[in-house]
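hi! just following up on the protien thing from before. the input was this:
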Amino acid sequence: MNKLKILTVCGVGSGTSLILRMTVEDILSENGIKAEVSACDAGTAVSEPCDLILTSKEIAKIIRRDDVPVVIIDNFINKNEISGKLMPFIK
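and the predicted 3d structure came back as:
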C-alpha cells in the first residue's frame, strides 16, 4: 500500500501551511498513522499528486481539484477542528 500523501496549503507555502503541517503530523502521530505531509502554495497544490488537501476556504477556491478531497480548515491552530475534519478522510 502506498503511503498516504497530504498537502497543507496556504498562499505562499511557507507560513500557515507549515503550522498546519505540524499540527497534522501531531494528529497522525497520536493516532499511529504514517503519512507524508507537505506544506506548499496554492499553485503547487493545483497539480501536485496527493490523496488529501487541507487549506483555507479562500485557497480552496483557487485549487479547484475534483480528483482529491479538499478539506477546508477555518482555524489552522485549532487541533480539535483539524482532527475532526482530517480523521474521517484517513480512517
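The mean pLDDT is 93.
Strands lie at 4-10, 35-41, 52-55, 70-72.
cheers
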